[in-house]
Amino acid sequence: MSSFTRDFDLTVAWLAKYLPRSAVAGYMRIDWQTVGSCMSRALHDLEPERARRLNGLVNIGIDETSYQKGHKYITVVVNHDTNTVVWVADGHGKSVLEQFYKGLTDEQLASIKVVTGDGARWITDCVNEFTPECERCVDPFHVVEWAMKALDEVRKDRWRAAYEKSQKLSRENPQKRGRPKADDKVAAKVQAARTRASEIKNSGYTLGKAPEHLTEKQQTQLDMIQANDLRLYRAYCLKESLRLLLKSTNVKQAEANLKHWLWWASHSRIPALKELYQKIKRHKEHILNTIRLGLSNARIEATNNKIKLIIRKAYGFRNIQNMMDMVYLVCSDIRIPLPNRKSEPQKAA
User: Fold this and answer.
1) Left (φ > 0), alpha (ψ -120 to 50) or beta: where does 29 sit?
2) Do 23 and 56 form a contact (C-beta atoms < 8 A)?
C-alpha cells in the first residue's frame, strides 16, 4: 500500500517523464528514490496488463543497450509497426532473449514475420529456434560498421609499415651539419616517407566519409593514399562498394553485386578483409532480406537514444526495475493524465 494518492503518483510520473529526477523530488517534496516508486505505480495503474503489447507483433527489432559502466546491459524489443517498446529485460544474450520468446503464446509466435537486429549470434539462434518461419534482417548500419572496423585495422597496419619505413630511412641516413647539397635528395626522401606515414595516420576520418562528402583537402589526402598505398585504397573501395550495395532497392542486382563483393574481398590478400568476408558471407541471406524488405534497426537505435536520455536525466538508477518501468512509460504511446485536466484526444494512427 502507498501513502500517496493516485493523482499524486500521476503528477510525479508526468514530471519525471520530462524533468530530471532530482528536480521532480525537490518540486514534489519527496525523496529521490520515491520518485521511482511513484512512477512505477503510475505505470501499473495506467497499463495493468502490459502483456497486451505482445499481441499482434509482426515486425520487431531486438537490440541491447548499456545503462551503466562495467558492461551493464538491458535487452529491448521494439514493435516496428507502432514504434513502441514491447519488452525490456536486464542483461543480454541468448538466455535473456529466450525469456521473451518463452513468454509468447503459439499464436503470438506465429504472428511474427520479421526480426531485425545486429549480427549477434544469440539473436539469430533464438529466431531460428522459436520462429523459424520468420525472416531475419541485419541492420545496414552495423554491416557498414563492420566494414569500417576492418578498414581501420588496415589503416593502422599500413601506418605501422609506413612509420617503420620512415624510421629505417632516418637511421640509415642521419642528418648532420655541413653535409654536401648532393645529399638533399636523400633528406627529401626521408621527409616524404615521414609525410606519407603521417597522412595515413591522420586519414581515419577521411576514409570513413562517403566520396561525395569529402572536402577538397580530404580529397587530396585520398588521392595521395591512392597513389602511394594501393592496399589501403583497395580496402577503402571495398568499404564504399559495400555501403552503396546496401542502399540498393533491386534485390537481384544487389545479390549479384554482393556475390562480386564477396569474391573481391576473398581475393584481397588482406587479413582484416578476409575476416570481414567471412562475416558478410555468414549473414548474406539476412542482408538480402534487409534490402528486399527495407527494414532496419533505425527505430530501435532511436529508442536506445531515448533510454540513454532517461538514464542521463535521472543521473543513473539504483533500482533496475524502476528504470525499465520508465522505459515502458516513455517509449510507448501511453498518455499520463494530469489531475483536474481534460485528457487529450488520441492522435489518429
Assistant:
1) left
2) no
Q: What is the pLDDT of residues 71-111, one digit of tens each?
A: 788 899 999 998 899 999 988 899 999 999 999 999 999 99
Q: What is the DSSP letter of 85?
A: E
What count of Cα atoms within 13 Å lies in the side-chain half-sphere of residue 121?
2
Do 61 and 83 share a domain, yes or no? yes
The DSSP element (H or E) to which 64 belongs, if any, is: strand 59-68
Alpha carbon distance 111, 314 (integer Å): 36
Q: To 10 degrees, what angle do helices 140-172 and 284-293 make?
A: 130
Please check whether residue 340 lies inside any domain of the structure.
no
Using CA atoms, how far apart are residues 159 and 203, in angstroms rounded to an integer?
10
The identity of residue 48, as a single letter, is: P
CA proximity to 104, closest of 63, 52, 62:
52
According to the 3-state scheme, what is the secondary structure of 249-310?
CCHHHHHHHHHHHHHHHHCCCCHHHHHHHHHHHHCHHHHHHHHHHCCCCHHHHHHHHHHHHH
pTM, rounded to two decimals: 0.81
335 assigned to some structural domain: no
Number of structural domains in the chain:
3
